Amino acid sequence: MSEEQPPILTASMHDLRHFATILRGINFNNVRATVTILHRGLLVKVEEARTITATAFIFSDIFDEYIYHSENQQNDNLMESSQGELLDNTMFEVSLNTLIDCLNIFGTGGPTSSGTGGSGGNKRWRKQGEGSDNESGEENEARGRGRRIEPISTTGSEKHTGMHMTYAGGGYPLTLLIAEDASGPTTTCEISTYEPEPQLDLDFDNDRMILKIILKSSWFRDALSELDPSCDKLTFVSNPPEMTNNPRNGKQRKGSATKPILRIKAGGNFGTTEMDYPNDRDVLESFECTRSISFSYRFTHIAKTLRALQSSTKTSLRIDDEGLLSLQFMMPSPKARGPEGEGAQAFIDFHCLPLDEDVV
Amino acid sequence: MQATIHASALKSFTKALTCLARYGDELTICAYPDSLSLSATNSAKSAFCRFKYEKEFFSRYNIGKPRRNISDGEGEGLEETQTIKGQLLAKNLLSILKHRTVERSVERCELSIVEGTGGDEGSDEEIDSLESKLIVKLLCKHGVVKTHRLLLSIPIALLAPGVPDTPNQARVNIGPGALRNMLEHFPMQKGAKADPQLIWTFNESEVGLKTCESSMDKGKSQISTELNISAEEFDAYELYTSPIIIAFHLREFNATIAYAESMTLSLDMCFTDTIAPLYIDVEGDCTQGLFVIATSQPPGVPVPISQNSYRPMSNKKRDREETPTDLQRPKRGMKIVQRVDADAASRYTAQSRQSSRMPDSMPPPLSPGPGSFRPLSVPVHQPSLSPVPNKRREQQEPLFLPSSQLSIAENNFLKEAGLGDIGTAEELNALLEEDGEEVDFSPSQAQRASDSKQIKDDEMKVDGAPESFELVEETGFGPTQATQKGFQPLFND
């Protein structure tokens, strides 16, 4: 550590689970993540197969302490980054797997219970029981209150695994100081950082947007999880609502639309699966579609979003005229609750290029 | 075929599917005008499971194509009475219906089978309709519709085992909970390979369960457990003779118990003999579950006389194969389900329908078609020692070969025996009769012998054949299943 100047980044939080959950949501297999340090927070981005990118926005307010000393003038390595839109930033690469493993070093970085319930939650109970007995009692109580959509309760004197993260600058490791609780054991991890490499930029242009759907994540999660893992292709078919009454000869079942406004289609060796969603406020919170579209994506890519999806509350699904898919998941934050916590939501963004229908 | 299952009934349907999936990977669906049957057979063909749902189980059930086009209704009218069959991987269907969201959100489930029609239907569904498909349409809350199209393959026609209706059949009835309590005393190894076997001894007033230790398990399980339980624990306990000793594997049996437990139904177990399979009926509302599990020869149990005729022959063969397998090793049971030729499938259908209609009664034995199947090998000197297995053979109608023609294997067999110019079974039988020995040298026996071994040693055959004939004369020609049992380990994994 350089003693003479403050580290570029100092961040700490008393409960690292939320942070770990977000990072886990974008954890592709063994890829390095590019971390961009901004004044507003951290931007962690991964990419795979030049087709899909995942970006996590972790705003500074989810940290208890977040100090960013811009060092751009003194650091030649990072000069190129100043060309970006966000002038004042610092980037480095780090192995995301290692980072997540370090956060979970006490087995307490398990997924925060979020909008999901389900099996992830059970795992967490076990892990927490190992970590701290006080905690599990309280958490169980919280669970009894019906935590299905509630993020973990952060009332009072819970003891969570805390974290203090520093990054001194280019060439220095990312240093994590993790304490299981105030009086418990602590560990210091130094994770090698790398110089950032050029990234794939799949920018979603709102002007070219054709489909925009906001729905509860549980719907989308159920849809994806019901698909057979052997599926190779996933297709989103969407039609503008007004076209659904277009009369067509053939099937007329219960007056339902001949053209679904949203259909998720998947095919595999076993057969095909189609899921039709009606334009019902209970299902789709908002639906905008300007023309009929049908774009296919590789299922393994879409399936990578599942982990983030599982811990999110809402999903925004957008597709532009070339089929670029943008999935944005709203990650519930413990601090985001209540009237004052509006800005504290974290987001995970996935951008995925469609399969070329002519080639496939 | 269209069937609509309401959410409440879907649960029991899914439970049955879970059970089926534990019996076998492949699920065969047969839709009859008044019922839908789902069946599965394990890979060794030693356990069979069938659920039959009455029409009333479904909130809507009809078979045949929906009459969309009245113009060509005549052609479709012919198909109305047909049964529809298909086969698919059980886990594919199960994973759809068992998904945790289904229970929560599905309001009803529509199953339909669309048969491949060569394209004339393709126009309105935009889907290639060459293949038969099972369409599972889940209608969920809020109007969400999930449509799964699963490809159906042409089922491998299997002869379902029929239930014997013999006076000397033992019948016991017991609830799944009591069975579970009995079985939980026996340590079960977890894992896919573990398939423990228990020996059940049904006595006048009590039932004994014993760990069945085979050479393969030796060393692995050091505990031999024995449990005796009063017959009063059974809700019904009817034996025609005692003791009856049967041994069978528990993997499929446990699946049956789990199903019965989840449905709170009791198990009706029927068995006749050590070597005859165990039949279990689990009946619920509009549901009939039939489970057939092959029994095996427990070690240390006196071998039924009908089995003796096979022992010498199989012993010899095994020596020649240099397979030092333990002869006392209990064999994974004989096949209780037989494969059928394609042309026999239609007849199988008829039979199976009858038997599924009345699972408690034996379907009438079908007389083999002229020349298409070999005559049943009822021995000439058949003592009444083991009538049941022969009956089973009759109703199962295991169809190996046309009677008038010998298989390649048989011809080889005969050539090696120096009887190469015998072309048909009749000639062979005639020849054998001339020899003055009254035997039933059935083609299937020969085939089986040569199949399993490809005997090259003429000497052996000359020796071996008369030997077995002698035994046949003494003790009667037992069921062919026993032969298979003797040979079984050579095929088993």
From TrEMBL, chain A:
This is Rad1-domain-containing protein. The keyword DNA repair applies. InterPro entries: DNA_clamp_sf, Rad1_Rec1_Rad17. GO terms for cellular component: checkpoint clamp complex. Residues 140-150 have a biased composition (Basic and acidic residues). Transmembrane segments: none annotated. Residues 111-163, 238-257 are annotated as: Disordered. Residues 238-249 have a biased composition (Polar residues). It holds the Pfam family Rad1. It is found in: Nucleus. Gene3D superfamilies: 3.70.10.10. It comes from Macrolepiota fuliginosa MF-IS2. Keywords: DNA damage, DNA repair, Nucleus.
UniProtKB/TrEMBL annotation, chain B:
Residues 302-395, 435-460 are annotated as: Disordered. Residues 351-360 have a biased composition (Low complexity). Gene3D superfamilies: 3.70.10.10. It holds the Pfam family Rad9. This is Cell cycle checkpoint control protein RAD9A. GO terms for biological process: cellular response to ionizing radiation; DNA repair; DNA replication checkpoint signaling; mitotic intra-S DNA damage checkpoint signaling. One of its GO terms (cellular component) is checkpoint clamp complex. Residues 450-460 have a biased composition (Basic and acidic residues). The lineage of its organism: Eukaryota, Fungi, Dikarya, Basidiomycota, Agaricomycotina.
